[in-house]
Amino acid sequence: PSIVRAQEARELVVITYPGRLSEPHRWLADQMEARHANLKVRLVPSDSQDMVAQIKAAQGFSPYDAAPNDEPPHLIGINEGYLGRRNASALKNLDAVYPELLRKSQGYGVPATYSLVGIAYNTTLVKSPPLSWADLWKPEFKGKVGMARTSSNLGLATLAIAAKTFGGSESNLDVGWDRLKALDAKAARSPASLTQMLEREEIALAPLWNNNTAAAASKGLPIAFVKPRPGAIAIISFFSAISKTRHPALVDEWLDGILSPAYQTRAAGAPYYFGPTVKGVSVPAEARAFTPSTPEEVLALQTIDWPKIVPIRGQLVERFDRTFAM
User: Fold this and answer.
1) Which end of the chain is more exposed for a tag (fewer CB within 10 A), N or C?
2) How many CB atoms lie within 10 A of CB 276?
3) Mind listing the pLDDT tens digit for each residue in 190-246?
4) 3-state helix, strand, coil in the chain (%, to 5)
5) What angle do CA 198, 203, 207 make, to 5 degrees?
6) How far apart are CA 109 and CA 112, in angstroms?
7) How many other CB atoms are there within 10 angstroms of residue 197's CB atom?
């Protein structure tokens, strides 16, 4: 019997986020372990570059079974062949996903959550907060705005916002470069360092993730968040099977759990503030300052045309570093 039990033991290895943002994944893992005897769901905090290198180096099966990816690395994973196609017939919750978010998956994985890029500001330094993206260019904010390097999705989104606000687009980013230079902005290497600059009053405001802003505000710091007109930017996080997984059926169960109302509601609450991708999920009251909670707010959300940006990402990082010396 001990040999049989050892043979039946299975381990599902799932990439997760660092720190407390992994907690909804741990909750889902506990649910699966309770349903399956001899199943262990191991969560591995990892950034996408480390994960991809290990998957590519693997001989035979992948060391990971499933992973989350924001839109740009999701597109790269599809093109490079290490993400598995979605098994729609195994996902009973798939019909509840917002169709426009599902289309962006291109048939791979599921839209797990979304995060927002809005405007964070220090309430000690800013008494009349911006109400629109264009307000960042008000004269009183010149030299007081921060921005993230374009090596991050936040930095790329900020460039696209600057372009689109002033008549450009993802296909015409020169407008965005000109407008960012006009801000006389302070550059940060990452969203985390940008948040620290805001906390230390080195800057007064910045395009920033709702999650980073909420975490700072929860510490009692004078930080607030604006979902600016014509709409905050939603950046989708997909959860996908790795193409060489040993456990495709378990991965399908994991992905269906990601789309369950119970998981979506948990991930939308404090301190995670992930936007729900499934219809009918109510955003908890404590999250409504940071996450769209009404149909009007959801309809106002903007997205980035990532297929236009991803192929030239390296060039954009180089140009940022030339333009804004770090």
Assistant:
1) N
2) 28
3) 898 999 999 999 999 999 999 899 989 989 999 999 999 999 999 999 999 999 999
4) 45, 20, 30
5) 70
6) 9
7) 18
